[in-house]
Specification:
heterodimer; A: mainly alpha; 2 helices; B: mainly alpha; 6 helices
Chain lengths: 50, 140
C-alpha cells in the first residue's frame, strides 16, 4: 500500500502542480491522504463481520 | 501582406498541433518519453520511473494482462484490457511475448498485481495527456 501510494503520489504531484515546491507539497499531501484513507478503511473493515 | 501573416500563423499552429499529437503518442508508447522529448528531463525520469516500476511490480506480484479481443471472464475484463493498454508498448510487447498472459489467481498477491498493472496504464494515459498539453503550450 505504501509503495502504491508513493508511486501514484509522485505522478499526481508532478502533473498536478507547476513549480517544484508545489509539486513536492502536493505529492506529500496525496501520499498522506492515500495512506490515511487506507488505514481508516482497513480499520472500518476490521469491524465488519467476515 | 495580411494574408501571408495569417497563412504563416496557421502553418505555425498546425506544426505545434502535430508536434503535440506526436508528443502525446510518444508519451503513451513509452512511459516518460513524452516529457523527456518536451524537455522536462527530471519530470520525465520520475514519471517514467514511477510507471515502469508500477508495471514491473504488477508482473512480479503475479498480475496478469487482460486481452482486448477475447475474454473468458466477462465484459468487465475488456475495460481492464483498456486500462492495461495505457502502458503502451510495454503492454503490446508483454502480450506479444506472453508475459503476464496467465491468470495466477492462486497466488495471494495476484489481485494486487492486477491493480498495479491497471493503474500503471491509467497513470500513463494521464502522462500522455500532460505531455500533449505541455507540447501544445497549454501548460507552463
Amino acid at each position: 500500500m505504501l509503495l502504491f501510494a508513493l508511486l501514484v503520489s509522485v505522478v499526481f504531484g508532478i502533473i498536478g502542480r507547476d513549480t517544484p515546491r508545489q509539486q513536492a507539497l502536493y505529492g506529500l499531501k496525496v501520499f498522506a491522504e492515500f495512506v490515511g484513507v487506507g488505514l481508516v478503511l482497513a480499520w472500518l473493515l476490521y469491524w465488519l463481520p467476515g | 501582406m495580411e494574408e501571408r501573416k495569417l497563412a504563416e500563423t496557421a502553418s505555425e499552429k498546425g506544426r505545434v498541433k502535430a508536434g503535440a499529437w506526436l508528443c502525446g503518442l510518444l508519451a503513451w508508447a513509452v512511459p516518460g518519453a513524452g516529457h523527456l522529448w518536451a524537455g522536462r528531463i527530471l519530470s520525465g525520469l520520475l514519471l517514467g520511473g514511477a510507471v515502469w516500476t508500477m508495471y514491473a511490480l504488477g508482473l512480479l506480484l503475479g498480475g496478469h494482462l487482460f486481452s482486448l479481443f477475447n475474454s473468458t471472464t466477462g465484459l468487465l475484463s475488456y475495460v481492464f484490457g483498456l486500462f492495461n493498454l495505457g502502458a503502451g508498448l510495454l503492454y503490446v510487447a508483454s502480450r506479444a511475448l506472453e508475459i503476464g498472459a496467465i491468470d495466477q489467481a492462486e497466488r495471494a498477491t495476484a489481485e494486487y498485481g492486477n491493480v498495479f498493472l491497471m493503474v500503471a496504464g491509467l497513470l500513463n494515459y494521464l502522462l500522455a495527456l500532460d505531455a500533449f498539453d505541455i507540447r501544445a503550450g497549454r501548460k507552463s
